[in-house]
């Protein structure tokens, strides 16, 4: 019986490998020319297809544009201890483009606005705050309502429920806790805004022993989540449960792209939870986040510390043919 189980596992793994496509990203920003530090994270796209990330000029309080060129986007000059880890863009009801920045240290969301539509984000304010928010670590947005969803984590040698959380901030900036979990990280909304995805990881004796992605039924207007179920269990999917899930993004077809920290690749997963492809990164092993950007919203950018020089932040790019959800929503102004 033991031999039969081993054989079944081998055959299942072989079948999975045969059905999964492997693609390769190319370097876009390398250690030699990077203006980003090793904590590069928070990948985001604006309406024009510009690509952004945090930790610009090695500053935790600074965010920068990475595509089409590197430049400072926003640096907090009010609070010296700001630590931005996430960015999402939105178009408000008046057609004004705004960016939301997740501040890990001060448990808040900062809103930066471009009231003149000139591309100059000149007005900033604390939009949403609650001292009980663990971080936030990453952000997702339902563009139809402007509602934000926040994940956070506390890293412990032995994980416990409460080391991760899920919050929402409504369009008025009111924060509401939706649940507590083991370590939570990646978070994303489906294109129809009816599903919320959230990753959860477990440590035991300093070892990562589990990484799963949950799916919830989502009411984007009310900000409620129900019917929690396991969408992907990486132990069962490909035996990579020890590699943390980091940032996650969806394309317009509903496929979920998942940063596999430490594995140097991105997993592409179908809306029904099937592994479709791996995108192998050229410059990054500890990939932290990803987003679709570029003029057509079809370039998938991934960020993380450079393999060749971990003191710098690298960006790799995979040129596909399907637009990202966020870019498409921003183009439609919703």
From TrEMBL:
<feature type="signal peptide">
    <location>
        <begin position="1"/>
        <end position="19"/>
    </location>
</feature>
<dbReference type="InterPro" id="IPR013658">
    <property type="entry name" value="SGL"/>
</dbReference>
<feature type="domain" description="SMP-30/Gluconolactonase/LRE-like region">
    <location>
        <begin position="129"/>
        <end position="301"/>
    </location>
</feature>
<dbReference type="Pfam" id="PF08450">
    <property type="entry name" value="SGL"/>
</dbReference>
<dbReference type="InterPro" id="IPR051262">
    <property type="entry name" value="SMP-30/CGR1_Lactonase"/>
</dbReference>
<protein>
    <recommendedName>
        <fullName>SMP-30/Gluconolactonase/LRE-like region domain-containing protein</fullName>
    </recommendedName>
</protein>
<dbReference type="GO" id="GO:0016787">
    <property type="term" value="F:hydrolase activity"/>
</dbReference>
<dbReference type="InterPro" id="IPR011042">
    <property type="entry name" value="6-blade_b-propeller_TolB-like"/>
</dbReference>
<keyword id="KW-0732">Signal</keyword>
<keyword id="KW-0378">Hydrolase</keyword>
């Amino acid at each position: 019986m033991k031999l039969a189980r081993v054989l079944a596992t081998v055959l299942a793994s072989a079948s999975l490998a045969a059905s999964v496509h492997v693609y390769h990203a190319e370097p876009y920003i390398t250690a030699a020319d990077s203006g980003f530090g090793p904590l590069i994270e928070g990948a985001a796209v604006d309406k024009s297809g510009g690509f952004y990330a945090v930790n610009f000029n090695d500053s935790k309080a600074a965010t920068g544009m990475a595509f089409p060129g590197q430049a400072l986007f926003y640096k907090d000059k009010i609070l010296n201890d700001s630590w931005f880890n996430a960015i999402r863009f939105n178009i408000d009801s008046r057609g004004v483009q705004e960016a939301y920045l997740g501040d890990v240290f001060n448990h808040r969301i900062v809103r930066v606005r471009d009231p003149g539509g000139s591309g100059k984000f000149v007005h900033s304010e604390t939009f949403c705050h609650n001292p009980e928010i663990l971080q936030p670590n990453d952000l997702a947005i339902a563009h139809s309502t402007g509602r934000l969803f926040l994940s956070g984590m506390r890293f412990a040698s032995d994980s416990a429920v409460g080391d991760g959380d899920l919050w929402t901030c409504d369009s008025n900036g009111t924060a509401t806790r939706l649940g507590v979990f083991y370590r939570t990280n990646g978070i994303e909304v489906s294109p129809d805004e009816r599903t919320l995805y959230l990753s959860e990881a477990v440590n035991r004796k300093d070892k990562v022993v589990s990484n799963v992605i949950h799916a919830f039924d989502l009411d984007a207007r009310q900000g409620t989540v129900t019917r929690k179920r396991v969408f992907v269990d990486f132990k069962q999917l490909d035996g990579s449960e020890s590699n943390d899930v980091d940032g996650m993004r969806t394309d317009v077809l509903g496929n979920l792209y998942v940063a596999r920290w430490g594995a140097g690749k991105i997993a592409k997963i179908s809306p029904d939870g099937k592994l479709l492809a791996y995108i192998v990164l050229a410059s990054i092993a500890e990939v932290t986040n990803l987003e679709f950007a570029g003029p057509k919203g079809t370039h998938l950018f991934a960020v993380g510390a450079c393999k060749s020089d971990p003191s710098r932040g690298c960006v790799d790019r995979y040129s596909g043919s399907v637009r990202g959800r966020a870019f498409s929503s921003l183009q439609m102004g919703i």
